[in-house]
Amino acid sequence: MVKMFQAGPPGKSIKSDCQVCYTPGSEPLKIEIESKVQALFSKTIRDLAESSFTKLGIASGSVQIKDFGALPFVMMAQIETVVKRAHPELVSVSLLPEFKQHAQYKTTRGRFRRSRLYLPGNQPKLFLNAGIHRPDCIILDLEDSVPPSEKDAARHIVRNALRTLDFFESERLVRINQGELGMLDLEAIVPHNVHVILLPKAETAEQVIAMDHKVREILKREGIDRPVYYMPILESALGVLNAREIALASKFNIALAMGLEDYTADIGTERTLEGTESFFARSMLVNAARAAGIQPIATVFSDVSNEAALRANVREAKALGFDGMGCIHPRQIKPIHEEFAPNAATVEQAKRIILAADDAQARGLGVVAVGSKMIDPPVVKRAERTIRMAVDIGMLPESWKLEV
Amino acid sequence: MKKNYEFIKNAVGRMVPTEVNGKKVVPFQGIRSYKPEGHKTAPPISSCSDYPMDGNKIVGSIKEALEKAGLKDGMTISSHHHFRNGDLIMNQVFDAAAELNKKGLMWFPSAAFPCHEPMIKHLDSGVIHHIEGSLNGPLGKYASEGKMDGLAVLRSHGGRWQAIQDGDVHIDIAVIAAPTADPLGNATGDRGPSACGLLGFGLADSMYADKVIVVTDNLVPFPCIPWQIQGQNVDYVVVLDKVGDPDKIVSGTTQLTKSPDRLYIAELTARFVKAAGIMQDGFSFQGGAGGTALAFAIYLKDMMQEAGVKARFVRGGSTKYLVEMLEEGLTDYILDGQTFDLDGVRSMRENEGHVNTSPFTSYNWHGKGNFASMVDVVVLGATEVDVNFNANVVTHSDGQMLHGIGGWQNCLFSKCTILPIPAFRDRIPVIVDEVTTIVGPGELVDVIVTERGIAINPLREDLIQATKDSGLPIRTIEEIKAEIDDLIGSVPQKPKLTDEPIGVVNWVDGTVIDTIFKIDK
C-alpha cells in the first residue's frame, strides 16, 4: 500500500499557513494546489512549490497543497517537513529562504529584557506582526507550546522565520527542547542569527556546558564569529539550588529565568497568586544572577485579561530584584514596560547625575559630583540606564537635555 | 442574456457604462464638478378625500397593502436597514409579490444583509429583476457571479437620498418597518419591543415615494410621539407580530476588536489625532462601525479625559462607547445616523443630547450644505488603498463585490479622513499600485494608519508639519508598501476579470465613478 505523508495544521479555520500531502510514487511529480488567495497568487505559489520539491530532490509522486495565505517561508517549511517525514534520510538537506538584511541585526549583552513575548513555534501567523508591539525580546518557542508531533515542523518554521522576518530590533530568542531534541534544535537554528537560546529545565551546570559546546561547534563549522547568548530557565528544586553554578557555567549566559509552573509542581505544591511558595526560589535566582553579573528574569503571568493583577505582579517582581518577565500576549508588553520604569524621583536624580557627568567631562575633570557628593562610575552607568528606559517608554523626550 | 454596454472614460480614468438599467447616466467629472440643474422630483398630489377621516389606515396584511398600493410588474419597492441583519419584513414583502405573480420588480434597499439570502430565489424566478443598493454577503456573491439581470448600483447613504430627491430613482412603493406606529402612519424607531433607534434611512422614501406602507408590531393610539416618520406621508399601516429582531442590529461590525494588531492601529490613530492638534475643546469626530473604529473611540476617550478636552459633537453610528462619552459629559451631542446597539437605542430615547439625523442633514450632496464636511476627523475602513490614496470599500483585491458603501463616501469630506487598516490580510496586501474599484478619490483621503506605520497624503502638508516631531511612526505610503511586498514575497497578480459589468459605483452627486466587472472563472 502507498503511504501518504502530511504536514501543516489540521482543520479548516487556518490562517497564514498551509497543509501539504505527499504520496511518494514512481510517476513524475504532480502538484495540485488549492489556495484561499488563488486569484492573486496562483502562479507564485506554483512556482514556489515546484522549485521547493526540485531543490529537495523530489521528482516523482503526487502532492496536494491546501493554502490559507501562507507566506513563502511557511510554505517552504511545510514542504520540507512533509518531504523529511517521507524520507528521513534527507536529514542534512535544508530548504532555506533568503536571509534578509533586516533579520541580521545584532544584540548586546546588557540590553533591556523587561518583556519577552512567547510565540508558539508552529503558529507562524502569530510571528508576522509580533515585532510591531516592540517587546524587548521575542521567543520563538520549540518546547512546551509545540506538541511532540509538530516538533520537526516548528523547527523548520522557526528557522525560516529567523531568516525572513523583521522583528524590529526585538532580541531574537529561541526556546529549545530538552535533551537530544534540543541538540537537533540547535543544529537548525544556531546558524541563523539567533541572539539568545533559552535552555529549559536547567538543573546543572553541565547542561549549560553541553549546550555551549554544541553551539560553539556549530558556530565554528559555519564560520560565524558573533556570540550566541544563553538564558537558562530554572524550573525545579534542583535547578534553584544549583542556581549559582548554572549562572556561572558559561560566559555567554546573560540571564537566568524563572519557570514557576513546573517549579511549584516539583516542590509538591500549587502556584498561588500571592506566590509565597516560590518566594525562596525567586529570591535565590535573583541573588545567583546578580552574583554572576547577569539579569534575573521573572516568570510569565498567564491571566491575559487581568491587567491590574499583571501590574501588581510586575511591581512585586521588580521589588524582588527582577529585571524583566515573560509575556504570552502582546497586550501585556506595555504594562510590563510601564511598571519596570523608574519612578519620577529616580529619573530626576539620574538626570542630575548625567548632567554632572557631562559637565565633568567638558571641564576635563576625572571626578563627577552632584552638589558636594562624589558619584562613582557604576552609579553613572546606572543613571544612563535609567534615562534610556525613561526615554524608551516616553517618560522623557529624547531631547531632554535641551529642555533642562 | 447580457446586453452590450457602451463605455466612456471618466475623470478618474475608469471606464464606466453610459447607460445603467435603462437610464442614461453621467460619468464622474471630479469631486465637486457636476451640478445638475432643474427641480427636485415630487410625489403625486394627494387629497384627504381619499383617506379615512378617522385616521385609521390599517389594512389586514402586507399582501393586501401591496395590492391596494397598486403593485405592478416592473415597479420599484424600497426598504431600509435600520434592523440591519435583523429585518423580518422584506422577505415577506417579496414573497407576497411572488404570490401576486408580479415580475421584473426592482428592490431598492438602503442596504441588504445576509438575512436577505432568500431574495435569491426571487431573483432566479424573475420576481425581482435587480437590486440597487448595498449588497453584502450572499447577495453580493450572487451579483459578483453575474447572475443578476441588470446592474447593481452602489450608492452611499447620501447618494441614495440624492438619487431619490433628484428623481434618478423613482420609488413606486416604500415599505418602512416601524418599531412603533399609530393608525395614521406616524412612526418611530426609538421605542417598542423591537426598538432599533432611528428611521432616518426611510425618511426620503416617505417623502418622495408614490405610496408608503408602514409595518409595525407595536400599534399605539394617535399620536405616536416622536413622529420620526409623519403619517401625512403614509398610505397604509400593517400590523404584524414582529417586524424585526433588534438583537441582530449588533452585527459583526459592531464588536470591539480583540486583535492586538488592530488595537495597536486604533491606538496609533488616536495618538495621531492628538498629535495633529485635532483633539481640542469643541472638536468633533466620527467613529464608525468596525472593531478598529470602536477601539479608536475608546483610546481617544482616555486621551480626552486625561487632557480635559470635551467634544461639541460626535457623529455616530452610535454604540455604547459613544453613549458613555455622552453620559460622562465628554461630548455635548451625539448626532446619530444609525444605531448600532441597544445602548444607543436607549440613549436616543432618554437623552436629548442624542439626536437622530437623516441622510439629508448629514450626507446629501445636493442640498444647501451637509454637516459631514464640518466634522473634524473621521475614521473609516477600506479593503484597499493605492499609492495615490485612492480607496476601495466595496470590492476585494480578488474582484469579489462584498461590501456596501454606507456613509463612507459622504464622510470623506470631513476635515481629516483617516483610514486605520491592517497593512495586509492573509498575505493580501492592503496598499496596492491601483485599487480594484475607486470608491473614494485619493484627494479626500488624508491619512492611512497601519500596524507598519502612518502615511500622510502629501497634499496635507499641514498634517505632515503638525506631526513631524510627534515620535509617531510616520512614513511614506511607498515605504509601507515596499515592506509588505517584501513580506508577502511577491506583488499579487491581477485577478482575471471579464469585460462584463455587474455593477457600478456612484459618486455622491449621482455620477458614475467606477464599474465592477464580473470575475473570469
Number of domains of chain B: 2
Low-confidence stretches of chain A: none
The number of distinct β-strands of chain B equals: 32
Proportion in β-strands of chain B:
15-25%
What is the tally of helical segments of chain B?
A: 14
CATH architecture of the largest domain in chain A: Alpha-Beta Barrel
Strand order of the largest sheet of chain A: 5-6-7-8-9-10-11-12
The low-confidence parts of chain B are none
Question: What's the gyration radius of chain A in Å?
Answer: 24 Å
Largest protein interface, residues of each chain: A-B, 28 and 24 residues
What spatial form of chain B do the alpha-carbon principal axes imply? Answer: globular
What does the main sheet of chain B amount to? 9 strands, mixed
Strand content of chain A: 15-25%
Mind describing the biggest β-sheet of chain A?
8 strands, parallel, barrel
Describe the structure.
The complex is a heterodimer of chains A (404) and B (521). Chain A is of the alpha/beta class and 404 residues long. Chain A has three domains: 5-90, Ribosomal Protein S5, domain 2 (2-Layer Sandwich); 107-340, Phosphoenolpyruvate-binding domains (TIM Barrel, Alpha-Beta Barrel), CATH 3.20.20; 344-403, no CATH class. Chain A is built from 14 helices and 14 strands. Chain A has helices spanning 38-55, 72-86, 151-164, 179-189, 205-222, 237-241, 243-248, 260-266, 279-292, 307-320, 333-340, 344-362, 377-392, 400-403; strands spanning 5-7, 18-28, 30-35, 60-67, 115-120, 137-141, 171-175, 196-199, 229-234, 255-258, 295-300, 324-327, 368-370, 373-375. In chain A, the strands form three sheets. Chain A has an eight-stranded parallel barrel with strand order 5-6-7-8-9-10-11-12, surrounded by four helices. In chain A, strands 1-2-4-3 form a four-stranded mixed sheet. In chain A, helix 2 packs antiparallel against helix 3, helix 10 (307-320) packs parallel to helix 11 and helix 12 packs across helix 13 (377-392). The longest helix of chain A is centred in the last third of the chain and has 19 residues, at 344-362. Chain A starts with a strand and ends with a helix. Chain B folds into two domains: 54-132 and 169-249, Glutaconate Coenzyme A-transferase; 252-497, Glutaconate Coenzyme A-transferase, CATH 3.40.1080.10. Helix content of chain B is 24%, strand content 24%. In chain B, the strands form nine sheets. Chain B has a nine-stranded mixed sheet. The two termini of chain B are 18 Å apart. Classes of the chains: A alpha/beta (404), B alpha/beta (521).
